[in-house]
Write a structure and sequence with these properties.
The complex is a heteropentamer of chains A (about 375), B (about 240), C (about 300), D (about 260) and E (about 325).
Chain A: E1 4-10, H1 21-35, E2 38-39, E3 42-50, H2 55-69, E4 73-76, H3 80-93, E5 96-99, E6 116-118, H4 123-136, E7 141-147, H5 150-165, E8 169-176, H6 184-193, E9 197-201, H7 204-216, E10 222-225, H8 230-241, E11 245-248, H9 256-269, H10 275-294, H11 299-308, E12 320-321, E13 327-328, E14 331-336, E15 349-355, H12 357-360
Parallel strand pairs in A: 1-3, 1-4, 4-5, 5-6, 7-8, 7-9, 9-10
Antiparallel strand pairs in A: 2-3, 11-14, 12-13, 14-15
Helix pairs in contact in A: 1-10, 2-3, 4-5, 7-8, 10-11
Chain C: H1 5-36, H2 43-59, H3 61-64, H4 74-95, H5 106-126, E1 144-146, E2 151-153, H6 154-176, H7 178-188, H8 190-195, H9 200-222, H10 234-247, H11 252-272, H12 280-291
Antiparallel strand pairs in C: 1-2
Chain E: H1 3-6, H2 10-18, H3 24-39, H4 42-62, H5 73-88, H6 94-116, H7 121-141, E1 158-159, E2 163-164, E3 169-171, E4 174-176, H8 178-199, H9 202-212, H10 214-219, H11 224-250, H12 260-273, H13 280-295, H14 301-316, H15 320-329
Helix pairs in contact in E: 3-8, 4-8, 4-11, 4-12, 4-13, 5-6, 5-7, 5-11, 6-7, 6-11, 8-11, 9-11, 12-13, 12-14, 12-15
Classes of the chains: A alpha/beta (about 375), B alpha/beta (about 240), C mainly alpha (about 300), D alpha/beta (about 260), E mainly alpha (about 325).
Bound molecules: adenosine-5'-triphosphate (ATP) (2 copies) and magnesium ion (2 copies).
Chain lengths: ~375, ~240, ~300, ~260, ~325
């Protein structure tokens, strides 16, 4: 078309709204503005919609965007189910789909697509970082509370592998429906299992509620969130969360660049960006650069360029998109500060260690993605 | 009640009463009156509008217009429960005994509208069968007993104006007699009674006056003493 | 598999906790249905509203009144929220439900369904489905008591006791008082009841107030346990429907006992066969219907 | 059981939670006769009907119809065997025309009611027969009127017409004249007489005038048991019956009967 | 229950049936629908057709059987899942897949029907709702449904193994999936015709009679329960057909197909269009569909609007759009 259209398909009112949602749209707009609002002389447009965390709605919306609105690229996608569905539509329609919110490794394995990019993080990288750290502390018997959908399951599976490899054992687990309110009975089961660690393979509100109720029932075991966002920590408060270790792709207080972006974003939206929102900015930027470099918005050309150019910005260090669509970059293991260490409302996390990309992400060897030539 | 009205002496005065069920216009200006202590009957064919008349007096029909004076008070604009508090007791065609209440609860249900209602003792004395079955569920009673209960229920409240609808309907002769006796008794006690009846023989025995209703209007009034004279006139109305 | 007794007992306690909520809610439903012949689909929404009244009163009231440290305490909420919700119910009854008594009862169901969607939607818009935590749990109820087999949070114990007290209070009101017999009579034959000098319309309004207020109360009690969210009622309500069908709409006591029993059952199933936990109630319902279509406590239709 | 008895009950009884509404009733209804069931209210007449037509399951006893035991059958099956009832409260399909009321009944006898793939013009086949039946009960002019809009007496007439459509061997009528004005009573009485030819009729009726003009045999129930049996004269002179049911001498009754 | 309240126009329906049937309306609407994809976004049009069929199936039960099922989504959804599974995993051809899904819906219809018809009116509504919830959880946990993610990437396949349904035709710069469109059109029309036929059949008459006075129908010797069950199963089956077809259109089946919101939606469609009318559900479905589509950007205000429409219909508009028109025109639609 005569404009370059970017579609932000996200969760506007659901459990993940605070992780992406309007914030992701804002991030994309910032990227477009910083890029100059035009590429190859064509204006850049942003459309957005709510996928309500329902695969059918997301897919239908994407299909309609591609068919009737001439959208060139879809970004964000907070729920794995939706992400998989939309990536399929993208493949069918030959349009680029960038996944930032969802984490299921399926996106770059069984379900991988030549037009799909899995940008921010995935369950493997989270599991690897966090599990390894805890095993080092000798916390080697686990029990899982798992959100019963692709993301949760994949997170549990990956963690289980890591724990196994490092010689720990998993004593069991229980699946709970997405966005439950009452975790008490699951927690009691976990308690009865006698495991040292209760791994929370869920996200957002589920994670927060679980931790709260664990306190209510005076559960002694170590609770560990396998996917934790700054916003969750804020919701829990430092008191409840202090000392908790988790893996993330971005937090604002890592270095000068991250701080710069963080503050800029804070100024615009009133809150610090989550790793998803930061990734939306970064990936949109990368896409636009690719379009410019390719001199066309033809998906195949752009996709090639995106693969060929390494990514080095505030978000991604030594970033590279593999043939399976995985964007490999450094991840960070962080720890929640004690209340007395915190100097401001957003001062909550401290860096424990940096996990280099090639260790953080699943090696291509043994990938189930048909695109990977062995 | 204020004595002023006593010598006026009218317990009920209905003038130009119109009533509707939804769209259908049933009563076309009913006029009649009942003096204190009188017993009048409303006669007529099926669907003439007698039940409707009683319901309209109580404001249980749809729209209604005209005037209903219950011992000196205009009732046409009052809600049903207020009308009842003017001292009107209604014994509906279908008896309407409450199955969720036992006999005694049924008796105790209606709030007293005046102090001088009958006590339970008096009522059981009037209807001994009710005493036997006082603890059993309302609808478990046989038709006749249900009928007695329906009447007894309104006597407790102290209502002085009784609207009785088809109280002998579908009853065995033996029970019809019983009911007849109790109605006479009430009349002696000075109750004012409006009686809707198919059973003319039953009505003839006890009424002071008969109003004949046709197509929602009072077409004739016959007093007890001129009754004998006007039998065939009546038969014409009732289509015998 | 061998399950430690202590696990069973603790899950049973949690089950009882849920059961208490089921009882409170199904009681409200039964009362409304009994008197108004309306299946109050909005019951879940009113439950949610109750919780939100408490939440707003605690976190936002101050800001609105321009006095930040002015808050509606939990204890106050226990009283205020049911009344506020009840009054909302009164508005609904007087402006809408009232007009539907004459037509087919299904319309009552459809109306309240619509209302439920509206309430849910509005709150979802302002507090997305994730909802917010309610942090007003009173000090005295903090912490847990040692039941020997488990540490059971004081607050949950309190919620069980409170719910049951209220349930039996309502039962007494309806089965054992004059007002109760008015209610029952008004249900059976409104016209005649009116003709006896009883203000049936007012009774109806009151009943709806009562039923809905019960839902509101349940909401407040639930708030500190589960975080307050717009959808908290919508899925619960279907379970409660099942409870009511099992118990048989007619009976107040039926609603209470069935609620408790099923909560307990659910809790135990969580121990023995977790996957069945969220379906067991519906399965029981199906079986009961095959065996006793009128429900366990229902009168033969 | 002899072939001229169409319906027989043996020790028929029904208890409602302890309270026994009907106990040990032994009825014999002769083929082709009009048999009346009378008795004070609560005697158990309607309950007996419900037992015969299986709307209630009996607690004791057997029901034998046309030589076979139907005690354990379902209402529909009983109806299929030609034992059809009418209700104490008039029962029609209010939002269907009188004609359709009858045609739906006819369709049941002929079959094909389950067909959802054919057009309902199929029903036109029954129109003539239906009109004939409406004629019998004097409703020819009301064929197109909605049953719900018919006057009370005519509703009953229509109900009888639909019942006839099923060509019942045995008709059970529960208080066919209840709540009717005098003229309606007479219309229905003569109607019953007319349709009775070649059929058996068992009816509940409080109106003794009707009973005396129609019934070949009368069974008096009281407190759920048979009190007396025989033709009108015998029954109405039976002192127990007078005491329990009429409470007055028979001849006086016959006159008063107009409305009791 | 007072059926006459429930479907004000069914009377005119019954009478209309006595007039001789006209064919031109069928042909006309077919003609119109044939050109639709050139104007409207075809995928959307096809979805609307599926929902229209769904609503009609539902209305067969409510409008003509007098039974309000609040759990019809479970038939719609079950068929959707099983069709998807059959086509994707077992590689069945689309028509066989749909057939399979529909058949399963029918079986489920029998199972649920047997239980549900034991209660009437409001109870029936609650029972169906609860049983549907049971099915919902079953789908949530069943291995092949993909839980929260749904069953995805269902191929369109080849009709009878010959015609490729994913085939598209270039029209302007748009790609029109005409093959699929006409396939769906055929199915929807077939379903609709069957319903029309059923309503105006002896069976339909008996259903009406039962709704009017059950005890009487019983005493006439009709096995009432069998007729109710038959109506229920038929409705369930057609709902299934709609679900199965929809799966093929959007290429995935998900929990929202079995969720009670879906059951609510179909009630609304019927109520809004006019229950007890043949055209009503279609109009209702299209209206609601468009409503959703237009308001999608409003987030949760959609729910509010839907709720609002419900309230308005119940309070002021009980006949529904078509019912109202029919009432005005005093003739059959
Ligand atoms: N609820 C109602 N809705 C519409 N019309 C009614 C209603 N009740 C009665 N009618 C009509 O009103 C007219 C008068 O009815 P009403 O009950 O007053 O008759 P009636 O004189 O009491 O005779 P009977 O009681 O012997 O039937 C009749 O034509 C009847 O059809
Ligand atoms: N469902 C029931 N439960 C309990 N008792 C019942 C039930 N149905 C009837 N009865 C009782 O059984 C007895 C017989 O009732 P039935 O209706 O047969 O009397 P009936 O002879 O028909 O009287 P009527 O002439 O008033 O119709 C009555 O005492 C009645 O209260
Ligand atoms: Mg009358
Ligand atoms: Mg009887």
């Amino acid at each position: 078309g005569d404009v370059v259209k970017i579609g932000i398909l996200t969760d506007m009112s659901g459990v993940y709204a605070s992780l992406g949602g309007k914030g992701s749209v804002a991030a994309a707009q910032m990227a477009v503005a910083d890029f100059g609002g035009k590429v190859l002389g064509k204006p850049i447009e942003i459309v957005s919609a709510d996928h309500q965390n329902k695969a059918d709605i997301g897919a239908a919306k994407a299909r309609e965007w591609f068919d009737t609105q001439g959208v060139d690229m879809v970004n964000d996608l907070l729920n794995s189910g939706v992400a998989i569905a939309v990536q399929k539509v993208g493949a069918e329609k030959k349009k680029i789909v960038i996944v930032n919110g969802a984490g299921s490794t399926a996106l770059t394995n069984k379900e991988c697509s030549p037009y799909g990019v899995h940008y921010a993080y995935d369950t493997y990288s989270l599991a690897k970082g966090t599990a390894t750290a805890l095993m080092k502390q000798g916390l080697d018997s686990w029990y899982f509370l798992t959100a019963d959908y692709a993301f949760g399951q994949s997170l549990e599976a990956e963690t289980t592998k890591v724990v196994g490899v490092l010689g720990g054992k998993v004593l069991g687990g229980v699946k709970h429906p997405l966005s439950s309110t009452d975790f008490s009975s699951y927690l009691l089961q976990a308690q009865n299992s006698g495991a040292k660690v209760i791994g929370l393979a869920n996200a957002g509100g589920d994670f927060v509620n679980a931790v709260k109720q664990a306190k209510e029932f005076g559960i002694k075991q170590t609770l560990v969130g396998l996917l934790v966002f700054d916003t969750d920590v804020k919701a829990l408060g430092l008191n409840a969360a202090q000392g908790m270790k988790f893996t993330t792709a971005y937090t604002w207080d890592l270095n000068a660049e991250t701080r710069a972006f963080g503050n800029k974003y804070l100024a615009k939206t009133g809150s610090m960006p989550t790793m998803v929102q930061a990734a939306v900015y970064s990936s949109t930027m990368h896409y636009l650069n690719a379009v410019k470099a390719a001199g066309t918005d033809d998906p195949d050309a752009v996709m090639k360029k995106m693969r060929d150019t390494p990514i080095n910005d505030f978000f991604a260090k030594n970033g590279k998109i593999r043939e399976d669509g995985r964007m490999v970059h450094d991840m960070y293991l962080v720890e929640v500060k004690k209340p007395n260490e915190s100097r401001s409302v957003w001062d909550m996390l401290k860096l424990v260690s940096t996990i280099p990309g090639e260790q953080a992400f699943k090696p291509l060897a043994g990938s189930e993605c048909p695109l990977v030539k062995k | 009640m204020p004595d002023v009205l006593d010598h006026a002496g009218e317990m009920l005065r209905v003038t130009g009463l119109h009533a509707f069920y939804g769209e259908s216009h049933i009563l076309h200006g009913i006029d009649f009156g009942v003096r204190r202590g009188e017993l009048v009957t409303l006669l007529g064919r099926n669907g003439a509008g007698r039940t409707t008349t009683l319901k309209a007096i109580l404001g249980l029909t749809g729209k209604r217009a005209g005037s209903v004076m219950v011992n000196g008070n205009e009732a046409i604009n009052l809600p049903t429960h207020k009308i009842a508090h003017l001292g009107v007791g209604w014994c509906p065609e279908e008896r309407a005994i409450f199955s969720s209440l036992n006999v005694e609860e049924n008796l105790n249900l209606p709030p007293k509208v005046r102090s001088d209602g009958m006590s339970l003792e008096e009522i059981y004395e009037l209807f001994p069968n009710l005493w036997e079955r006082r603890k059993s569920q309302g609808t478990r009673l046989s038709g006749g007993e249900q009928q007695m209960l329906a009447m007894a229920r309104i006597l407790r409240t102290g209502a002085r104006l009784l609207l009785l609808d088809e109280i002998t309907e579908g009853l065995a002769p033996v029970i019809v007699k019983k009911i007849g006796d109790s109605v006479r008794l009430l009349k002696e006690r000075g109750y004012t009674i409006v009686l809707v009846e198919q059973n003319f023989r039953f009505a003839a025995g006890i009424a002071d006056r008969h109003y004949v209703i046709e197509h929602g209007q009072v077409v004739d009034a016959i007093t007890a003493d001129e009754l004998a004279a006007s039998t065939e006139r009546l038969n014409k109305y009732l289509g015998v | 598999m061998d399950i430690p007794l202590q696990a069973i007992l603790s899950q049973a306690m949690l089950g009882l906790n849920n059961g208490a909520f089921y009882a409170l809610l199904s009681l409200g439903l039964a009362v409304i249905f009994g008197m108004l012949n309306v299946v109050n689909f909005a019951h879940g929404a009113f439950y949610m509203l109750g919780a939100f009244v408490a939440l707003l009163g605690y976190d936002y009231l101050g800001q609105w009144l321009g006095n930040a440290d002015m808050r509606l305490s939990f204890w106050a909420a226990l009283l205020v929220a049911p009344i506020v919700v009840g009054l909302l119910g009164v508005i609904v009854e007087k402006t809408m439900l009232q007009r539907l008594y004459k037509v087919d009862h299904l319309y009552g169901l459809l109306l309240t369904f619509g209302l439920a969607l509206i309430f849910e939607g509005v709150f979802t818009n302002y507090f997305n489905v994730a909802g917010e935590p309610y942090n007003a749990k009173p000090e005295v109820l903090e912490g847990a008591v040692n039941l020997g087999f488990m540490f059971f949070p004081k607050y949950r114990l309190f919620s069980i006791v409170l719910s049951l007290t209220v349930c039996f209070g309502v039962w007494y009101l309806i089965e054992r008082t004059r007002l109760g017999s008015y209610l029952r009579a008004g249900t059976e034959n409104p016209d005649v009841t009116r003709a006896f000098g009883i203000d049936v319309p007012k009774l109806r309004t009151f009943t709806y107030f009562l039923g809905v207020a019960l839902a509101g109360l349940a909401g407040v009690v639930a708030a500190p346990i589960y975080s307050v969210s717009p959808k908290m009622g919508s899925d619960l309500i279907i379970i409660v429907f099942a409870v009511v069908v099992i118990g048989g709409m007619g009976s107040i006591m039926g609603a209470i006992l069935t609620g408790l029993a099923l909560g307990l059952l659910e809790g135990l199933v969580k121990v023995f066969y977790p996957p069945l936990a969220n379906t067991v109630i519906f399965i029981v319902m199906a079986l009961v219907l095959l065996w006793r279509p009128a429900g366990l406590f229902g009168k033969e239709a | 059981m002899s072939n001229d008895t169409i319906l027989e009950t043996q020790g028929l009884g029904k208890d409602f939670r302890g309270f026994s509404a009907v106990s040990d009733v032994n009825l014999k209804v002769a083929r082709g006769s009009i048999h009346a069931l009378i008795g004070p209210n609560g005697a158990g007449k309607t309950t007996v009907f419900n037992l015969l037509t299986k709307f209630l399951p009996p607690t004791h006893g057997r029901v034998i119809y046309d030589g076979e035991d139907i005690t354990s059958l379902k209402p529909a099956d009983v109806a299929l065997k030609g034992l059809i009832r009418s209700f104490q409260i008039s029962a029609v399909f209010p939002n269907m025309s009188a004609l359709d009321n009858v045609r739906v009944a006819l369709m049941r006898t002929v079959g094909g009611a389950h067909r959802f793939w054919t057009s309902d013009k199929a029903l036109d086949a029954y129109t003539d027969r239906a009109m004939a039946l409406l004629g019998d009960v004097g409703l020819t002019d009301f064929a197109e009127v909605l049953a719900g809009e018919l006057a009370y007496g005519r509703k009953r007439a229509l109900e009888i017409a639909t019942t006839l459509a099923l060509e019942p061997k045995l008709m059970l009528l529960d208080e066919p004249t209840q709540g009717m004005g005098i003229e309606d009573v007479e219309r229905v009485t003569s109607l019953i007489k007319r349709v009775a030819v070649g059929r058996t009729i068992l009816m509940v009726e409080h109106n003794l005038k009707v009973v005396s003009t129609l019934a070949d045999k009368i069974t008096v129930l009281a407190r759920g048991q048979v009190l007396s049996e025989g033709d009108y004269a015998t029954v109405s002179n039976d002192p127990r019956v007078m005491e329990a049911y009429m409470g007055v001498s028979a001849d006086e009754q016959a006159m008063e009967g107009a409305h009791a | 229950m007072q059926s006459n309240d429930l479907n004000p126009t069914s009377l005119k329906m019954a009478r209309g049936a006595e007039q001789k049937t006209r064919y031109w309306p069928w042909l006309a609407s077919l003609a119109v629908l044939a050109v639709v994809p050139f104007g409207v976004y075809p995928t959307f049009a096809m979805e609307l057709m599926c929902f229209a069929l769904f609503a009609c199936a539902f209305n067969l039960l409510l409008g003509f059987g007098g039974l309000l099922s609040f759990g019809h989504a479970c038939f719609f959804g079950t068929a959707a899942y099983l069709t998807g599974h059959a086509i994707k995993v077992w590689g069945l051809t689309p028509e066989l897949g749909i057939l399979f899904g529909t058949a399963c819906a029918a079986v489920l219809g029998v199972l649920i029907g047997v239980i549900a018809i034991r209660r009437q009116g409001i109870y029936f509504a609650m029972v169906t709702l609860a049983l549907a919830q049971l099915v919902f959880f079953a789908c949530l946990q069943a291995p092949f449904t993909g839980g929260e993610d749904g069953l995805q990437g269902i191929p369109k396949g080849r009709f009878l193994g010959l015609i490729d349904l994913s085939h598209t035709v270039q029209f302007g710069e748009r790609e029109l999936p005409l093959a699929l469109y006409f396939f769906v059109l055929a199915i929807t029309f077939g379903g609709y015709w069957l319903i029309w036929r059923t309503v105006n059949s002896p069976f339909g008459k008996v259903l009406k009679a039962i709704r009017e006075n059950e005890a009487r129908a019983l005493s006439l010797g009709y096995r009432v329960d069998r007729y109710k069950l038959a109506a229920f199963v038929m409705s369930a089956t057609l709902a299934g057909l709609a679900g199965a077809t929809k799966t093929l259109v959007v290429g995935l089946a998900s929990l929202s197909d079995v969720h009670w919101h879906m059951s609510g939606e179909v009630v609304l469609m019927t109520l809004l269009g006019g229950m007890g009318t043949l055209l009503g559900p279609v109009v209702g479905a299209v209206t609601v569909g468009v409503l959703h589509h237009e308001l999608a950007s409003l987030g949760s205000w959609v729910t509010v609007t839907i709720g609002g429409v419900f309230v308005v219909c119940v309070m002021l508009f009980r006949r529904g759009i078509v019912g109202e028109i029919a009432h005005r025109l005093r003739r059959t639609i």
